[in-house]
Amino acid sequence: MEKKIAVIPGDGIGEEVMAQALRVLNVVERDFGHKFVTTKALAGGAAYDKYGSHMPEETLALCRQSDAILFGSVGGPVAEMHLPKWKNCEANSILNLRKTFKFNANFRPVKILPELQDISPLKAEVIQRGVDMVFVRELLGDCYFGEHKTFSENGKRKATDLAVYDEDQVASIAHVAFKAARLRRNKVTSVDKANVLDNSKLWRQVVTEVSKEYPDVELEHMLVDNCAMQLIRDPSQFDVVVTTNMFGDILSDAAAVLPGSLGLLASASLNQEGFGLYEPPGGSAQDIAGTGTANPVAQILSVAMMLRYSFSLEAEAAAVERAVEAALKSGCRTRDIFRHSKASAAEEQTTTRLINCQEMADEILKHLEQKVLV
Ligand code: IPM
Ligand code: MG
Fold first, then answer.
1. Is the CB of 140 under 6 A from ligand 1?
2. Is 90 in the pocket of ligand 1 (CB under 6 A)?
3. Per-residue pLDDT of the chain in tens (374 residues, 90 and over written 9)
4. 253 and 264 co-located in one domain
5. What b/e readout covers 200-219, taking b as 16+ CB neighbours within 10 angstroms?
6. Ligand 1: does its nearest atom lie under 6 Å from the Cβ of 11?
7. Are residues 54 and 16 in the same domain?
8. Residue 170 belongs to a domain with what CATH number?
9. Which of 31, 225, 234, 287 is catalytic?
10. Structural domain tally of the chain?
11. pTM above 0.90, yes or no
């Protein structure tokens, strides 16, 4: 198979973790006999330095000509947000890409392997009930894309952000969620704030209407504050969680630490034609950028999602995921998941080993080349 991939490392740890992800992609290409033509482009602060824009036309043009986009992360250090290089960086780059390519559905899988429970902040008894869910976050509506306004009223500064949903947007993401549930455990939890917000009332109505077309899928509605609590109290109750842009942003980060770190999770953003962007949702982590300590797993698992969703290469995707699991099970830990404890109850002899970004990729590549079944 021959595919063109737009590679956009972005800012912060983006460059370091992307370099490791591309090593993995190269091995998949070689061992499975594909041709992946990767072309790099700039976005975010990195693009600003060269083009004076966070999303140059060159980058958009490359994305248009590609079969998939592999994205790192964008954004600057918190203390420098006011500088032109970083001001509105996320809105101009990643939000611009989402809007340009109409990526309305964002998949964020969250899974805890029982063997890796030592790196989860949850108690073993909670994890043992099984944690395996996927967030289906609506990505083009809500206060992200409604009007943003900062103004002065009666001598006081005021700011508003309009949170808008129309019924088609809600119906579209609801269909995505119900279809996803059919491939999993047939349960959808729709999360909203229908006790307060009008757009949530509409959301709930439309999701309920769409659910009639999926009588085999169980639908439950949950208020977002309760959901935040349930995610920590008993995450085993969730299969597919469908929610709004803003709630999805917050809840998926909360859920992302259940497996131990944001650095472990990948995401896919798809439009209705199936074109996709793959990125770790964890952010540019400027505080550790350049130290070589970032966890490359999220970026590597984003490659796996790209292989599966954009290229239908299931065996290749699974091989990458198994290699990641094998490296983690063998006790390899980047700093974000290092806990000074046994790697797994099942492998009593294995102690954890603190390694850097590149060494983590080395381990994953070792397992990938051996095609270990774990
Ligand atoms: C995410 C990120 C983005 C978002 C930021 C960078 C704009 O937090 O993908 O979750 O809020 O969607
Ligand atoms: Mg986020």
1. no
2. yes
3. 999 999 999 999 999 999 999 999 999 999 999 999 999 999 999 999 999 999 999 999 999 999 999 999 999 999 999 999 999 999 999 999 999 999 999 999 999 987 788 889 999 999 999 999 999 999 999 999 999 999 999 999 999 999 999 999 999 999 999 999 999 999 999 999 999 999 999 999 999 999 999 999 999 999 999 999 999 999 999 999 999 999 999 999 999 999 999 999 999 999 999 999 999 988 999 999 999 999 999 999 999 999 999 999 999 999 999 999 999 999 999 999 997 554 444 544 568 899 999 999 999 999 999 976 55
4. no
5. bebbbebbeebbeebeebeb
6. no
7. yes
8. 3.40.718.10
9. 225
10. 2
11. yes
Cβ of 279 closer than 6 Å to ligand 1, yes or no, is no
- Is 49 in the active site? no
Whether 242 maps to a domain, the answer reads yes
* 144 alpha carbon, closest ligand: 1
* Residue in 109, 108, 107, 111 with CA at minimum distance from that of residue 236: 111
Same domain as 187, residue 92? no
> Which among 216, 242, 257 is the end of a domain?
257
> Are 191 and 265 members of one domain?
no
Main-chain phi, psi angles of 279, to 5 degrees: -155, 150
Q: Decide whether any atom of ligand 1 lies within 6 Å of the 281 Cβ.
A: yes
Which residue among 54, 55, 88, 90 is best mutated to probe the pocket of ligand 1, counting the most ligand atoms within 8 A of its Cβ? Answer: 90
Centroid of ligand 1 to alpha carbon of 88 (angstroms): 12
- Show the domain range for 264: 1-111+260-374
The verdict on whether 253 is a catalytic residue reads: yes
Claim to verify: residue 289 and residue 353 sit in the same structural domain: yes
122 domain residue, yes or no: no
Ligand 1 pocket, 313 CB below 6 A? no
Q: For ligand 1, pick from 69, 87, 93, 94 the residue to mutate: most ligand atoms within 8 Å of CB.
A: 94
Q: Are residues 230 and 172 located together in one domain of the fold?
A: yes
The last residue of one of the domains, among 235, 257, 279, is 257
